[in-house]
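Hi Y.,

Following your request, here is the sequence exactly as I used it, all 210 residues.
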Amino acid sequence: MIQVGLDKRLPSIVMPDAREGQLVLSAPLAAGYRQQVLSMRRVSVTAMTPSEVHRGNPLELVEHMASSQLWAFERASDDELNVVVRGKWANYQVLFTWMHDIEALHLACNFELKGPERSNAEIEHLIPMINSQMWVGHFEFWPTERLVVFRHTLVLSGGVHASRRQCEVLLSAALDACERYYSAFQFVAWAGAGAREALEAAMFETAGEA
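Below is the corresponding structure, written out as tokens. Let me know if you'd prefer a different format.
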């Protein structure tokens, strides 16, 4: 197994060594991502080498980053790159989508939230409470699919080229947010806690680990 981290403040990211076999990825959350999530299929991929992409497409940087970190990934098209990251609390599926028409790199990082449907209403209360604390990006909850999704976008208007550091920070922000608030979602889904109680407990837990 290989342990890597984009930021010292983040938990180590553990991904299988390419020699240990294949990593199973699910189909991408592409533009129009909700419809595509509904038709998710399981595909098996191995470590890939950077593909030929259009010049200026920041996914080339992301793909090189994934390759250098020995992450398995799926390149569904020139404009979509799907990576699975194993965090402290869950496996996160991260989709990078290059939206060339508006010159923006979109990130959607999701994890499955299992639990009784009766917790949905309180989770819906929890989402805006968490989002009010976010400086960048935001969370969504898809009750039918039982997915929590963190979304963030890097705007590159005017032909600006993304740097590798910008792509790293984009991913680090998503992983940090998911790891930070994961327990709050779990408190509501499984412990039956109220939204405010769950958020306060998660923040206390996070402060204790600092």
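The longest strand covers residues 91-99.

Thanks again,
Q.
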